[in-house]
Structure formats: structure tokens, C-alpha cells
User: Fold Cytochrome P450 family 27 subfamily A member 1 from Canis lupus familiaris.
Amino acid sequence: MDRLAALRGARLRGALRGARGALAGLCPRGARAKAAIPAAVPATAETPGNGPGDRRLRTLEELPGPGQLRFLFQLLGQGYVLQLHKLQVLNKAKYGPMWVTHAGPQTHVNLASAPLLEQVMRQEGKYPVRNDMELWKEHRDQQGLAYGPFTTEGHHWYQLRHALNQRMLKPSEAALYTDALNEVVDDFMAHLSQLLAESPSGNQVSDMAHQFYYFALEAICYILFEKRIGCLERPIPQDTVAFVRSVGLMFQNSVYVTFLPKWTRPLLPFWKRYLDGWNTIFSFGKKLIDQKLKEIETQLQTKGPDEVEISGYLHFLLTRGQLSTREAMGSLPELLLAGVDTTSNTMTWALYHLSKNPEIQAALHKEVVGVVPPGQVPQQKDFAHMPLLKAVLKETLRLYPVVPINSRVITEKEIEVNGFLFPKNTQFVFCHYVVSRDPDIFPEPESFQPYRWLRKSQLAAPGVHHAFGSVPFGYGVRACLGRRIAELEMQLLLSRLIQQYQGGLGKFPGPLCQEVPGAPARPPTPRAVPGGSAPWSGEAGAVCSRSRDPSRSCVSQPPRPPRNMRRRPWLTGPAGL
Assistant:
């Protein structure tokens, strides 16, 4: 699949090279030289006017930016369409913390500093609008499907979100799913044990990104649809495999159809593949919802309405009138996609950085087994005593926000930001990736330092934290609906992994297995630690890698910012080697 994706990208770049002459004709070199690029906007909250005491608000036309043709060339000619996080870094360095870009008829005001994000987010109003889901809406309109929480807007969104918030948003409500999530974690740990036994070394599991994806899919389906779908079984059911492939198909092709003009849709395969992916996703969700409706109907016939027991999230929504069947069909597939990506992406990068920093990994192991000794299963209340575990996840989300770019459209009023006055319906783009790596907020921003989140720790990094410096789950009434579930899910899984296994890294020399430098000639033999009291030690062994980064190792991951993982994480077990 990686080769096919690379081939498609090469073909697209080849076609774009043929168009460069036309682009150059539209914007000759002389014209480029004469075009004045406004100075970069300073990061101050106000812009002075023309005289003493005069404070003139500047306009959208005065914002710096690359210009439409230049931006198009950056996206398609230079390949940033698949690496938008790098484009954030590039444009912020050139234009400052606020710049404008034009993509066809759309104008975007890009915000790349925490104070600017705060200014806009605190003015977003009762019904925050995000205008970056037009492609999703096109599919819903074509198929006659209801909009979900990511695609609907206004008062209808408010009503839908209020219904979906039930049994999901509060920590006390998320805690209700602890047993269900631990059930999936138990099966995942058994699955890892089987993979360990089948591995060439007998004590290693590579390709953990792939395993995390299937865990996350199994867990979120169990929460939303109250049904196990077999992601951790042997073999995986065919309809589940088809669903996983369709998610990758939809995300991968959405990148291309976002920026290619509509007249290319009949000529290129991307649009059809995009629609086919969504159709399979919704077909999969519909099947699970239909099964739940049949279960409810059977209970009503046998027990009566007063004796039906509310078993879970979907059951609650359908039986309490919180959501119509059509609304459930439109909403739950969207929640499913968000839930899978958050957990799998974050867990992969967390394991990667713990493997790169064995001293942090050892400290985390000590913390976990000090609260939950080996053989015991963590509960939600235990994480109040695991500050380092929470900090590891927060630091991972800072470095690799699951949503590196978000947007808002302020529809109710004009808005003032950083000395500029923007009209109603201006679309703002939140550049979360570059904001969360701001050295003024996070010293040594490229390094993995979970201790920076521990206020009382002597190892805490210096710096002035800003509330909007890292907001991986969003802010306000449109913040992530499943945040508490995702946090609990990752805490339960990471604590069990650290309790029982040790993470390590394997090099990427090619398709063959290679040993990590400094490792013994043969992988170490597992040694159990009685009572978990012995020091946590061990050495890395050999691991077979097929890809350089975690997003590539999972067939259905959407494009994401980081592509710099040169060695991939694996597990060796049990802990205490």
C-alpha cells in the first residue's frame, strides 16, 4: 500500500510539473519581483496606528501571505499537501504568527501562536462553526445521510451535541466504561502474548502501530455500539477488515480531492475511492446499529418497556429518545473515526518516545507498579496516583496533536485579532502543530520532556505555560466529545503495557531484521521479576521493520504531521527483564 501511495504521489507530481509552465505564465518573474510581500505580523496583541494615541485596526488585505499561486505550488508542486505540518513551520518562520492563504475561492487566516488562538477561541460564540468539512458533507448529501457532530452546524449542532454528550463527557460518566475497556485490554494483552510466542525471537512484538490501531477500533466499537467486532481474533472477520481498509481509503484520497478542482473528479480515481471508502464505513456502522435495534426490540417484546435494562451508550441514546435512528446513523461513524485515530496515534508515539528514553520508561514502570502491582488490573481511580503516566500522554499529544490543524468561522460578528479587524464569516485556521512547539512556551520544544507537566517535580522544565499552548482536544463547547473516554482508554492500556512489558526500538535498514547497535548477538531471554520489586532492566534485540514511521505501518491511518520516526517501537516482555 505504501508503494501504491508513493506511485500515486509521483504521478500527481509529474502532472504538476507539466503545469508549472502555465503557472509561470500566469505569474511571470518580473511580476513576482514587483509584488510587495507585507512584513511579517508581530506577535503583539495590538498594532499601532499613524500617530500618537491613534490605534488603527488593520484589514485582511494587509496580512502577509504566500499568494494564491505560490500557495498552490507549495501544496502540489513541493508536496506539502501531504505534510501540512511542515508548511505551518515554514510559513510561520517567513510571515510571523498570522498570515493569509488563498485556496480557490476560500481565504484562510492562519494563526500560529497561543495568544492568537486564545483571542479567537474566546470569541467563537454559542454555536462555533468549523468550515473544513465540506467534503464530508458532499458525501452525506449524495447518499441522503444525516449530518453528524463534525458536519452539522448552528442550532441543530447544539441539539445534537447535547444529546451525544450524555454518558460521555464527564469523567464520572467515562468511568462507567472502565470494565468494558479493561475487557478489551485483557484481550489485547492476551493477543500480544500470542504474538510474542510466535515471534522469531520468542519475546518480541514489532509493528506496534498496527496492533494499537486494531485495539483502538475494537475498544471504540465496544463503547459506541456495545459489540465486539473481532479485531483481536484470528482470523479477523472480513467485514471488519473491509472497514479498516475503507478508513484508509477515505482519508488517503481526501487529501487529493481537497485541493484538486472538481472538474478533475471524473478524470482521476481519487473522488470515487473517497466515496467508496465512506460508503463502506457507513454500511459497517448501519449494520451494528441495526443489530442493536433488533436487540432492543426483542427485549421490549419479552420484558416490556419498564424492564428493559440500559446496557450502554447507543442503547441509552436510542431508548431514551436522545437520538433518532437516522441521527445515530449519521453521528456514530464520525465518532468512531475520531476515537480510533486518537488512541492509536498517541499510543504509538508514546511507546516510541518511552523506548528512546529508557530512564523515563523505568520511572514510569516504577510509578505504575507502585500503585498497581503486577497481577492487578488498574481502575479509573488509580490514575489519580500516576501523575507521570498522565504527563507522558500529555507530552505525546503536545508533540503530535491528533488534529494538527483545526478551523473556526466566526459568523455572528466582526472580530478583532492582534490589531486586525476581520469581517464576519472569516475562516481562521488553528496551526496546533507549530503552536505546541513554540520555544517561548515549551523550552526545548522538540524534545520529549513529560516532567514539564509536573509542577512539583524538580525535573519540571522551566517556562511559562499558556493554556492554549497545547489543546489537543480542543476548547469550549465544541471540544472533543470523547476526550474522557480516550484519556481513560490510553491510561488503562499504557499502564498495563508498562506494568508487563518493556518497549524498545528497531532500526529501519530495509526488509531484513537488524539488531539495534549495542544489543547482544541474540535477543535476551525473558526473566520474570518476583513481585515486581527488582530493578527494571534489559537490552534491546532485533526487530523487523517495513516502514519508517508509525502512520505508514497502519493501513488506515490518515495523513498526520510527524514523519520522522526512523526506528519503530516494539515490545519485549515481560517487564523486569
Remarks:
- The first strand starts at residue 98 and ends at 103.
- The chain has one domain: 154-460+468-572.
- Confidence is low (pLDDT under 50) at residues 1-41, 43-54, 508-568, 572-577.
- The first helix runs from residue 2 to 26.
